[in-house]
């Protein structure tokens, strides 16, 4: 039974969610507690899946018969920082202007969470024959960390394996059937300091790091020119990218340390390991030259985080279902990562990404979501609820 003011209800819920500063560096427990209370008001029990520190938690809830296969609605509760961003209003207070709702996380991705929660009364009233599961995670923005614990406990949370998972990242309600994998690395170069007038007596850590970075850039160019390619992606080839670098103290001292970070974003089915080995082998040749001057020098390369890509066939049941619910017959693929890759690879659950708002607004100052996008997502969920009543 569709509520006539469901978009208004979603907006009110979104205002609550935005008011919690759930930046990934912070605890999300206040937000989780608010959602637990909201669900309890509507007769829905929920289960926390805490992290090791006990300062953060995922949340799982099931509406409908738990002894049957159903659908997961997945979203993350954390947001990116607002530090050094020029906002025209308080980022943690929802502001509506000209049909747009401004605030941190409105589009990425508390807007989706708000619409899902606004539909809980309809789910409860709908006498579902198939369950709808809510999976709200922590620390997605820093490497899809929290959802891994939830997926690891999924057999306990839901003994009957779900049919499919809809991850509500902002796609303007287009169904996304694939995204790239990501692998992040931290490189520490240990050189030997010397006075800059005696530079050849030292080992310049920044120079060595620069040679490695140029190597990474050459791999990136090769990925772009040699492929493989997939035109459905916004960036249709695998990529390599150096994102941060720090080293040195003052100009007249040969720097003895330099640290930088780089990443691969790989098309599904393209193995990152050969490229990783290529960089490690190149680093080994540099290290030999360094240690000829000083055995204490060296290069350390560490994989700090990674998440898999996914590639769901466009004619699969979950893809066709999502397109029907969204009222669209097109699909896309994206370069950014989501929790869909983990639900698919670790959980073995067919997944797609579909949610309100545009990724173009994510992570920016004055982030916003169109009210019309919340309404479109509401229609998607109305159709899902109806489908779950007909099982």
Total helical elements: 11
Order of helices and strands: HHEEEEEHHEHHEEEHEEHEEHEHEEH
The share of residues in extended strands comes to 15-25%
Structural class: alpha/beta
Structure, explained:
By secondary structure, the chain is an alpha/beta fold. The protein is 35% helix and 23% strand. It has eleven helices and 16 strands. A hairpin with a 6-residue loop joins strand 1 and strand 2 (57-63). The longest helix is centred in the middle third of the chain and has 22 residues, at 205-226.
How would you summarize this macromolecular structure in one to three sentences?
The chain is an alpha/beta fold and 391 residues long.
Question: What is the fold's blueprint, element by element?
Answer:
Layout: H1 6-19, H2 29-41, E1 46-50, E2 57-63, E3 71-76, E4 95-97, E5 100-102, H3 106-118, H4 120-125, E6 132-137, H5 146-152, H6 154-157, E7 164-167, E8 175-179, E9 181-190, H7 205-226, E10 239-247, E11 257-266, H8 273-293, E12 298-307, E13 310-311, H9 317-326, E14 331-334, H10 340-345, E15 351-353, E16 368-370, H11 371-389
Parallel strand pairs: 3-6, 3-7, 7-15, 8-14
Antiparallel strand pairs: 1-2, 2-6, 4-5, 5-16, 8-13, 9-11, 9-12, 10-11
Helix pairs in contact: 1-3, 1-11, 3-11, 7-8, 9-11
Question: What are the defining features of this structure?
Answer:
391 residues; alpha/beta; 6-stranded mixed β-sheet; 23% strand
